[in-house]
Fold this sequence. Notes:
By secondary structure, this protein is α+β, with helices and mostly antiparallel strands. It has two domains: 114 residues, Immunoglobulin-like, CATH 2.60.40; 198 residues, Spore Coat Polysaccharide Biosynthesis Protein SpsA, Chain A (Alpha-Beta Complex), CATH 3.90.550. The protein contains nine helices and 22 strands.
Amino acid sequence: MYTVYHPNPWKLTSDTAPEFRAPTRPVEFRQPDYMQKYDSDTLWYDVFFENNGHDIQLICPPLVNLKSWFCNTTMEDESGRALEKSIRHRWRLDHVTLKSADASTLSRFRFSTSQFDHTITPGQNLAKAFRGRNCLLTKVKNDRLSWIRDWASFYCRFHGVNAVLIYNNGSTEYTSQELLDTLRNVDGLDVVVVVQWDFKFGPLGLKTGYWDSNFCEMAALEHARHLFLCNADFVISCDVDELMIDAAGKSVFEHCRASEGGHISVPGRWVYCMAPDIATNDLRHVDHRHVIKNQPLICPPKWVVMPQKIDPWFQWDVHTIYPVSGPMPNVEGVEFRHFSGINTGWMKNRRVLYHPSQSSVTEDSWLNVYYDAMGW
């Protein structure tokens, strides 16, 4: 299966709602461009059937001031019976479930107020396509296609990945179809889905906190969990600039399978390109060969999970899964390398800002073993 998936969002307008989403951050802690980046008008990102085939799921940014209005909207099945609404308040999102008294006949629903009356057709659940698969999950925004191809090839070669799910968050350098076509040429992949995720990423947090307004990525993880990956065997969540390695040469899936809870945490270390003659546009993973001497694993962790072994309502976060009982376990010798130059600078130019001195680094012999095996 190779496809581009288009969600079915609902956008608020002055004609359909009495107000827009209020900012979740106090005025004194907002950056100058906070409101420009803030998603005030997405009511839901997508609407689809749960894997059980009858409950309807809506993945939403936090409803905040819209909750009362939303709860009072009319949502009815095709026979005019009110759908039962339940809202799970999650970290930086709300997850709405709609239930019908006669789920066997539910194929669409009426969504209306005094201002509008629409019929909504939920998408079909696509978990069947990923059943039994070992999936690589990420988001991208203009990450170069060569980087994405190398990244996927690495995980197929060393970890046994055979499926990729990518959320394309507004890339302008290529289309989702071009991204999909790039991954068609990666050996080992049987399933690739590119989700056209054209929503505001949201304002980032501050050093003092307030990571409260960037809803988009958390929603993508929730969406992936319930629409695509609930029946996958394994899922690796990591970015295109992150490659997981193991001192023993094992797949991270082997370690995850052996874990008590069906999930492991993977700590990370920065790796640098020390060849200044390589232009930023020409950088590849293989050009990064040096780590800072004696530096601890300072990168926030990423994770690997067996979705069928954990509670379906445990929330997938960027760096952890919660509420698991206690810290997610690390595995001795399993780490990821965080590639400083594999970055488009949409947040900051890491290659310039974080370039170490030659005397402070040493060659990463461990990573070189993987490069040699890839033929890079």
